[in-house]
Specification:
Bound molecules: adenosine-5'-triphosphate, magnesium ion
Number of helices: 6
Strand order of the largest sheet: 6-7-8-3-9-10
Shape: globular
CATH class of one domain: Alpha Beta
Distance between the termini: 40 Å
Structural class: alpha/beta
Helix content: 25-40%
Number of strands: 10
Largest sheet: 6 strands, mixed
Amino acid sequence: MAETENHAPAPAFIRVQGLQKAFRMGSILVTALAGIDLEIQARTFTVVMGPSGSGKSTLLYLLGGLDRPSGGRIEISGQVLDNMDENALAVFRRKTVGFIFQSFNLVQSMTALENVEFPMRFAGIPGRLRRSRAMELLEQVGLKERIHHRPTEMSGGQQQRVAVARALVNDPQLILADEPTGNLDTSSGASIMQTLSELHRSGRTVLVVTHDPRMQHFATHTLHLLDGKITNHDTFQETAPLLVES
Ligand SMILES: Nc1ncnc2c1ncn2[C@@H]1O[C@H](COP(=O)(O)OP(=O)(O)OP(=O)(O)O)[C@@H](O)[C@H]1O
Ligand SMILES: [Mg+2]
């Protein structure tokens, strides 16, 4: 095929130019992102760091199409987000992005299986397929024995693994995780990190906001934010690291 013969460098998977976000609080304008330029290559694992209020969550939300910038441009996998209407943005989120939040965001009245199946309804996947896919993903995150449990009947680490399985239902290219281990004990946190690392090594592009220095062990890049600006964008290794037992 012609595309395998392409010798020009591939355009970055994420291209951000002059990205700004301000929030109006009454008469005050709060600047969350003060003009960010950023390129992130496909199949990288970026750890996003910075003090509280530096704009980390805001950046992830904008990249995930969960909120709109005040200025600037975001292109992900060749798709320009600022040109999209709400429907197009919803399709982008569904097809391209898997979002993992600190607070899990599971539906409390639904079992693990139902929580994972839920987003597939909007993708028009038939019922039986939804079920088998959800089972497969829950098995993949080690929750085969907990599929009929509701969130209140699971540990924090198990709930977060349900959230990870749910983020993967539509096989997203881009995984965005905002402090995914923040609410977890050490060993549950380590297991989520392993899972994110496996997703990276299976070819996904991963961005994780975290205060946990152990996450750097899995990263190819680190991105430091301060006052809504990038202060540092370091490369550890260009390619995915091999799986090492820790
Ligand atoms: N919805 C909002 N309305 C008003 N201000 C906001 C809103 N969301 C964020 N901000 C402000 O924007 C700035 C960046 O917030 P953001 O949530 O991105 O920080 P953060 O780096 O994720 O911090 P933390 O580590 O505490 O989660 C902060 O000053 C915050 O108060
Ligand atoms: Mg945050």
